[in-house]
Amino acid sequence: MNGPTTVWLAIGLTAAGCYLLKLLGLLVPAGALERPLVRRLSALLPVALLAALTAQQTFGAGSALVVDARGAGLAAAALALVLRAPFLVVVAAAVVVTAVVRALGG
Amino acid sequence: MRNVTGVAERTAPASAIPGPGSEPASPHPVPEAGPAGRPDRAVVRDALGVGVAVGLSGFAFGVTSAGAGLSLLQTCALSLLVFTGASQFALVGALAAGGNPFTAAAGAFFLGTRNAFYGLRLSQLLALPRPVRPLAAHWVIDETAAVSLAQPDRRAARVGFTVTGLTLYVLWNLTTLLGALGAEAVGDTDAWGLDAAGPAVFLALLAPMLRTATERAVAGVAVVLGLGFLPVLPAGVPVLVAALAAPVVLWCEGRRAGRTAKGADR
Asked: Taking the complete model, does pTM exceed 0.80, yes or no?
C-alpha cells in the first residue's frame, strides 16, 4: 500500500480527471452530434463499455480470468431480466445466488 | 419525426447515410412533455429503483476501499468527489496492488471516459441551461444516462436524471460511509456475494440497450475484447480496447451495406 500523500494524490487526480470528462460531454457543442456517424457511435459506445465491464467484473480476478460463483450470480440476474423482474430483484438475485453458491463451496 | 411542441424544426442537409441516422432535423427527436407523455410517477419509480439498488452497492465500495487500506476520509472523499463507481473500484484496486498514483489514476480516468459520451447524448436530450451544466455534470454516470435515455420525452428524461442523480448521490455516499465503518463487522464481503452486485448492475443497465442485431454484435465483440485483453494489458486499458467494438461493428455494417447497394445496382 502507498503512503497517505500518494493516495491523496491519486484521489485528487482521479476526481479532477473524472469530473472534467463528465463536464466535457455536456459542454461539447450540439453540432458535434448532428453528424449521423457520431450519433450512432455515441449510442453504441455505452453498449460496448457496459458489456465489457459486466464480463470483466464477472470473470476477472486481477489480471486473470476465472469462472466462479459470480458466474452463477450473473446467470441468475440474466434470468431475472428475461422474466422482466424489477432492478432491485435482478441485483438481489445475483448477490444471493453468488453467496449461496460460495457457501456450498462453488 | 414527431414534434408535438410545434417548434420549428431546424433544417440541416439530409444525410447521405441511410438508416436511423438520416433524420434531417435535431439529433434527438424528443418531444417536450405532451399530453401523451409518461406520468412523472412512473419515471420517479424507475429512477428510485435504480438509485436505491446502486446506492446499496456503495456499501460494497466502502467495504472494498477500507479493505484495500484507504482511510475513512479517503474512502468518503472518493465517493463524494469522483462519484463514478467503476473508476472508484479500479482506483482502490490499483492502489491496493501497489500501483503508482499516476497509473492508478489513469486507469480510473480511462474508465470514466464513457461518461463524456453519456454527457454528449444527455446534453441534447436534457437541453440544460449553461449555468446548470457544471453542477449537473457531476451526476453524469451510467445509471443516470440509462434512466434518462430510456424516457420517451424531455420532461420525463429531466425528472429521471434528477431523481436518479439525487437518490444515487445521497445513498452512494451514505452507504460508502457505512461500508467503510462496517468493513470489520462484515469481514469477508465476497462471502456475502456483494462482489456480484457491480456486474449485475451493469447487466441490468445493458439489457434494455440490446434492441437490434447491431447492439448485440457490439456487446458480443466488446465481451471478447474485454476478456481477451484482461490478462495482457494494465488494469483499465482492456475496457477501452473493448470500446473499439462500437466503431468496428459500425464499419463492418457500412461495408456490408455498401456491398448490398452495389449488388442491387446490377
From this structure: no
Residues 189-248 on B with a CB inside 8 Å of A are 190-207, 209-210, 214-215, 218-223, 225-227, 230-232, 235, 238-239, 242-247
Alpha carbons A16 and A5: distance in angstroms, whole number: 16
Contacts of B98 (CB under 8 A, 6+ apart): A1, A2
Would you mind telling me the total number of residues written for chain A in this entry? 106
Instruction: Say which residues have a Cβ less than 8 Å from residue B105's Cβ, sequence separation at least 6.
Output: A10, A13, A14, A17, B91
Q: Is the dihedral of CA B120, B238, B223, B19 positive or negative?
A: positive
> How far off is chain B from A35, nearest CA to CA, in Å?
8
pLDDT in tens, B88-104: 987 887 787 666 788 77
C-alpha separations of B34 from B113, B149, B155 in Å: 34, 17, 9
Which DSSP category does A60 fall into?
E
Residue of B nearest to A22 (CA): B116
How do residues B113-142 score in pLDDT, each as one tens digit? 778 888 888 988 898 898 999 999 999 998
Residues 6 or more apart whose CB falls under 8 angstroms from that of B3 comprise B9, B25, B29, B31
Chain A contacts of B50, Cβ < 8 Å? 87
On the question of pLDDT at B49 being above 60, the answer is: yes
Q: Which of A51, A7, A2, A57 is nearest to B235 (CA)?
A: A57
Note whether A56 contacts B207, CB cutoff 8 Å: no
Joined grid coordinates for residue B85: 463507481
